[in-house]
Each structure stands twice: as C-alpha cells, then as structure tokens.
C-alpha cells in the first residue's frame, strides 16, 4: 500500500510527471532534463530523488554523466501506458517530447 501511495504522490507534482514522461522517451542526464524544464538544478535533483524513492526511475553512471531512466517496474509501466493515452493531446507534454528528441548531452554544457 505504501509503495502505491508513494508512486501516486510522486506523480502528483507537474514537474515530476513531466520528468517521468520525458524518461519514458529515453534515458537522460540532469542537464538534458534542465534544458527541457528550465528550472534550478537543485529542484531537478530533488524531483529525481523523489521519483527514485517511489521506485519509478533508476540511475547509472555513464562516463561523466549520471543517466536516469524508467525503472523496470510493472506497475510503473502500466501507469505509463495510461498516462501516454491521457496526455497524448496535452500541449506541454507534446512540447517536452519534441525538445527531448532534439537535445543531446554532448551538445550541452553539463
């Protein structure tokens, strides 16, 4: 029960929801997430910590970057499918995904 409550609480914040949906598109580092959200790095780090605590995302070190990706969690993946359907026409979601597809960590100053 606590795990489910933590999951929904985590996704109850708009920026965390946006991060979750961006990571559904592809793994990303903090500077790539920042390029889309344009909020303080400390805020992004706090959101990532929250999503990680809820077991929605995982991280790994790749060279000089810590890369975040969706967790291999059946419940989270089921929620993702529902969210993709519900957000398909959302302008913020569509804009975020377009930006995610264009940015590359190699082109950013991280």
Automatic annotation (TrEMBL):
Keywords: DNA-binding, Transcription, Transcription regulation. It holds the Pfam family HTH_5. The keyword Transcription regulation applies. Residues 1-94 form the HTH arsR-type domain. GO terms for molecular function: DNA binding; DNA-binding transcription factor activity. This is ArsR family transcriptional regulator.
């Amino acid at each position: 029960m606590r795990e489910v409550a933590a999951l929904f609480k985590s996704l109850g914040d708009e920026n965390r929801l946006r991060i979750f949906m961006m990571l559904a598109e592809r793994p990303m580092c903090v500077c790539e997430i920042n390029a889309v959200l344009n909020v303080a790095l400390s805020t992004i780090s706090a959101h990532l910590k929250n999503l990680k605590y809820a077991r929605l995302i995982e991280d790994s070190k790749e060279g000089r970057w810590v890369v975040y990706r969706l967790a291999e969690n059946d419940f989270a993946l089921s929620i993702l499918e529902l969210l993709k359907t519900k957000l398909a026409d959302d302008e913020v979601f569509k804009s975020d995904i377009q930006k995610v597809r264009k940015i590359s960590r190699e082109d950013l100053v991280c």
